[in-house]
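Researcher: For the record, we're logging two predictions in this thread. I'll number them. Prediction 1 follows.
Model: Prediction 1, sequence and structure:
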Amino acid sequence: MQKKTVRTRCPVCGSKETVKVGENTRRLRLPPIGSHPAFALAHLVVRRCKDCGAERQEKLEDALPHKSHTKRFSRLVIELAQWMTLSDIAAHLHVGWNLVQRIVKEELKRKVKRRRYRKIRMISVDEIAVKKRHSYMTVVIDLESGQVVHAAEGRDSAALAPFLSRLRRAGARLRAAAMDMSPAYEKAIADHNAKLPDGCRQCVIVTDHFHVVKKMNEALDSIRKDEAARLDEQGRKTLKGKRFLLFFGADKLAEKPKRLADLKTLLEANDTLMKAWLLKESLGLLWMQPSKAKAEQRIDEWCAAATETRDKHLLDMAAMIQKRRENILNYYDYPITNAALEGLNNKIKVLKRKAYGYRDMEFFKLRILTIHETKFSLAGS
């Protein structure tokens, strides 16, 4: 194709006194015609300015610089990526997989770059496993929009600090952050609060109750192991195979009478497990109190009951709850949890399984950052 000859201005000085000094040809890939690849040859004129002497090649509106395809071809790839895998798109368009991945990656970068962070008020922070051998990534979502707003390798304070710094630059007023009991994340929030201007409301940490209950289940399992080591052979037979049964509540087993009967038999046979199981059940009620004052009273009662047992695992649980007392009670000011992020983790796991792993970690981060707003199925990524 040949561009229409027009009187062009010099892009350097703006002069209209330009003359043609040469011509270059670019071969560009077009959207296919049926199942056949299509190409275009663009003949681009090189002009010299008589006033300043600058030489420039004229621009081609339908293609970006240094690209071997037109903008229409890019739009086709992005549209197909909503329904097809990258490998299928590459095969359908008769192009390399790397070209398709590069086009989709650039589109994801544009989406992420357009985001604004000023209105973020409440976030959820958690870690996900991305590779074997303890390779993790920190993921943050905006709890009001459901949007993933940060993804970074690692699970230390350095993985979260750049995001918090970006919030400060954007002028966001972060009110609360739901997270597990990670000291690294707590340190990042403390550093963020220390850098806020005087008079600004600081961000509070809301300890996710799922992780507290999980710690209690671990303590309950440790108690079961201690009891199995202490008892005789007959007593050990009673506890054998009952690990996960102890994690259930009576309400969850209401429709399973056989398992409920097994649980009652187990608890009646061991007084220590009975006390620990009842404490586990009562701990879940901590987040169901009518007021913050009632919840505070509930913590005192629970810790006192746990201390009376003199069991080392329950003593550790009571100490942990007292240490994070304020963060647990913050739930009554900001009733937020990590539930939405835990659900998102399942989607990320599916994304990894489809792709059989990601060679480009930056691309994987972009996929996570846009996972809520795209329908891309990027298998083989």
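Researcher: Logged. Prediction 2.
Model: Prediction 2, sequence and structure:
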Amino acid sequence: MVDVKKLHEIYGDVVRTAPDEVSFAREEAWHDVFSSYKQFPRNQTFFKAPPGQPDNLITTVDQKKNTRMRQVVMPAFTERALAKQEPVIQSYARLMIGKLVDQAVSTNSGETGSTINIVDWLNWFTFDVIGELTLGESFNCLRNETNHQWVSLIFNSIKSVWGFHVLLPLKLSLTDLVMALAAATRYYIGLEPFLIRLLPPRIRKMQSDHYATALGKIHRRMNRSTAREDFMTPMLNSNNPNFTKMSLEEIESTTALLLVAGSETTGTTLCGTINLLVQNPIELRKLEHEIRSNYKREEELTFRTLQTLPFLNAVIHEGLRLCNPVAGGLLRVAPKGGATVCGHFLPEGVSDCNECLYILHSTDVA
């Protein structure tokens, strides 16, 4: 990502990064690739289900399969459906803030203030929220002030396989790192299965335990009726009668990936945004002033009212630009017959490497 950004700075908005890959740093590319009447298929090198797991909504490159599953899942992600989840998110936000206040005022020396690992707290928050929204049950990380066993399993398995500590300076989420590194091995025929066979039995067991634990939680949710709708509700109700539109295996694989993709990635972006604010005190004070001058009580902070704060939303967009949860890009391939992107014709099969759209040509918050 960093190297491609440098190429754009030297050669301009459109750069060939490989014989069959082109990177665009123009806003119009979003419309041409993702809103065009011509569908750009997902790049099979980057979109692939984990070994031993069935295809799912997020990893499938089959457009018909993706459309079929999307029609089942999408009712859970409409604006109206997500608005109903506000009380859940608010409750965990209040719990986290309350815990942080307790940490700040309870020191052995009697002085106000405390050193806090905000990375842990934001990951606990996002895992608790995604557990509640997806399965109707929390991981209770915030309440217990520690990682749930399943959460630890995720981090440990990924760190063990990919040596995450070496890649921390890249500021990418664990999920994004796995996708990027796994895709890199697929450029060389036979390398990926060879490396998988080299994994120690302990690591392979850790990965299988992670998926088995996720399946256990998913099945517990499927066997439980709940009054409050969650992300699994459309997959289990009349929207998917007798699993005819989305199979049980596809539900299991999609939900397991949602639990990871909707938690750790969000926590990483929040951490990155806060880190940038701390390094830019003028912008931090401006953001504090905007919020404190518009609200007198915490109860007044709602999804609807927060959308009206211009500087807050500028900070969010800038945080997403600089610490994007999908920093590897949403790579696509030119469709059959080729297609034109930003005035440049791409022959059939050429990859559109568009991750630099997250880096260049965005409004600065300063």
